[in-house]
Amino acid sequence: MSLLQPFNKLPSLNTANILLVENEEQFQQSLADALVEESSVIVNVRLAKSLPVPTENETSRPRIDLVVFIINLTSELSFESAEASLKYLDCGYFLGKVCFLVTNARSVSVPAERLDAVRKLAALFHCPLLFVEDQTADGVASAAERLLTILKVAAGHVPITTSLYMSILAQCTVPPDIDQPSFD
Predict the structure, then answer these.
(1) Residue 44's beta-bridge partner residues?
(2) Roughly what angle, to the nearest 10 degrees, separates helices 28-36 and 137-154?
(3) Fewer CB within 10 Å, N side or C side of the chain?
(4) Confidence band for 180, pLDDT divided at 50, 70 and 90
(5) d(CA 151, CA 59)
(6) What's the pLDDT score for residue 57?
(7) DSSP 3-state assignment of 100?
(8) How many Cα atoms sit within 13 Å of 46 on the Cβ side?
């Protein structure tokens, strides 16, 4: 298994390629369907449970413009899978071509430590962290719209804006008091 590299293939004209990585595949398919409905750009969606991706179809695989890790906060396995998959990405992806998408952040059963761990992970890699609602059609459509904005920039379809610039604007920062105990 090899590293997934962002610049080893040429981009396609009016095409953007996104890789959705989710261990449990609950939200992945509905988000993929919403992304494909985009009409101004051809969006190709690839799905994976985890990285690394198999090497047998490496020659036919298009250049991946954006990698999205979908993390379900109610599942510790989802977070661990995303964290383990990060080592299979080339460092060039962390220049604005990786995004973390978090679901079930409003759930009562989510430990605060897991939310803090996700925020720290996104801040460590200077990646955008998006919180989305996966239970409603409007939530899925909103998540797809937000991802399409990032994807178009990462694929180079927005003039004068680079994915690195977009990443700096949208990156997750961790407040200095995150390691302090909460008084809830």
Answers:
(1) 17
(2) 60
(3) C
(4) low
(5) 22
(6) 79
(7) strand
(8) 20
Q: Specify which residues 17 forms β-bridges with.
A: 44
**20: helix, coil or strand?**
strand
CA separation for the pair 55, 3 (Å, rounded): 10
β-sheet bridge partners, residue 9: none
Q: What's the pLDDT score for residue 98? A: 95
Angle 151-50-27 (CA atoms, 0-180°, nearest 5)? 60
pLDDT band, residue 181 (cuts 50/70/90): low
The phi and psi torsions of 164 (rounded to 5 degrees) equal: -65, -45
**Residue partners of 167: CB distance under 8 A and separation at least 6:** 95, 96, 126, 127, 128
What would the two tokens of residue 46 be? 């690839």
Nearest to 66, CA basis, from 82, 89, 50? 89
pLDDT at 107: 86
Which residue type, as a one-letter code, is found at position 178? I
3-state secondary structure 106-134: CCCCCCHHHHHHHHHHHHHCCCEEEECCC
Q: Where does the pLDDT of residue 176 fall: very low under 50, low under 70, confident under 90, or very high at 90 and above?
A: low
Q: Name the pLDDT band for 16 (thresholds 50, 70, 90).
A: very high
d(CA 114, CA 120): 10
